Amino acid sequence: MKQKLFLSLCLISGIGFAQAQGLPTNPEPGKCYVKCITKDTFKEVTETLQVYPAYTTLEIVPATYKTVEETVLVKEATERYTYTPATYETVDVSYLSKEGRTDLNIVPATFGRDSRTFETYPATSGWEYKILEDCPSVNKDDCVAACFVEYPASFRDVQFTTLATDASTTSNPVPERMSTYKKRVIKTPARMDKIEIPAEYKTITRQVVDTPATTRSTTIPARNETVTRTVLDKKGGITTWEEVECALLDPTVIPIFYELASARLTPASKRVIDETLLPILKDKPVSIEILSHTDSRGNDDYNMSLSQQRANSVVNYLVGKGISRSRLSAKGYGESRLTNRCSNGVDCAESQHKKNRRTEFRILNN
């Protein structure tokens, strides 16, 4: 009797949760569903547009000139100078030929050892769903129990070096050295004597504008054309639920292979995409995520970039087949999600590395 009461409460709670979350109201046992949002629809309209505006053309009427005479400066007034040089005498000047200094001797640093415990993975918890055994109902969803599970954190001891005494120096002073040099100094300063030179002038003739240039205008009419354009016909955004295979909600490996250090799709890989991904995208209005990976050989940053390029190549191929880019997502993981032990520095066979060079896909909720 207690078990029947518990099953009834689970059934009522499950229906209420589905309604609260906007889930399918009549799901079938063992089926999986993804939420899809309808896209905008468009239509073509024809209208007349002005493709060239009305404008005015201008014709220039040239200016006319007349000749006038004018006196102009052809050489400016200036000054001429005569120079009398300075006279010198020689003196001795003392100077510091080598500065004093302080030499340093290095006393090296000394070190000690210590350790510290780090949390390498935090404690986690969450809900897990379990189907009760001996369920009397035909619908297994009536016998689902929710359990809150906790997993403990992981820790690691790390050894490290500590600084006991830092490096230092001792000083040893070295005295400066003095010396002298010869220097010629002015005994009698140089001087300049100024002589004035007058300006020179000349009479010239030049042409000046008598009547300015003018314009004559002509109006050219506008030109119109009839064009066809695409406009929004019906706004999307309506939520629907589509039934899909449950396995497609988790990452599914598809046999797409690339040439070494290349993101180019081979003809064989394109056939695989045509046979696996295109039918799903054409049959149902779902969105998918493309996930690409590399093996551990090569530079980590290069592998991350290469995996993103490979995921993008699949997306671009699907777009070329008529799939909207808004339904596609590309993500490269480089060598961060290896399926075996073949990480950096581990000796593995080519067949083991090949398992990590994979492309996966999964269906997303919009």
TrEMBL record:
Gene3D superfamilies: OmpA-like domain (3.30.1330.60). Its main location: membrane. Keywords: Cell outer membrane, Membrane, Signal. InterPro entries: Bact_OuterMem_StrucFunc, OMP_bac, OmpA-like, OmpA-like_sf. GO terms for cellular component: cell outer membrane. It is found in: Cell outer membrane. Residues 1-20 form the signal peptide. Coiled coil: none annotated. SUPFAM superfamilies: OmpA-like (SSF103088). CDD domains: OmpA_C-like. Residues 245-366 form the OmpA-like domain. This is OmpA family protein. It comes from Ichthyenterobacterium magnum.
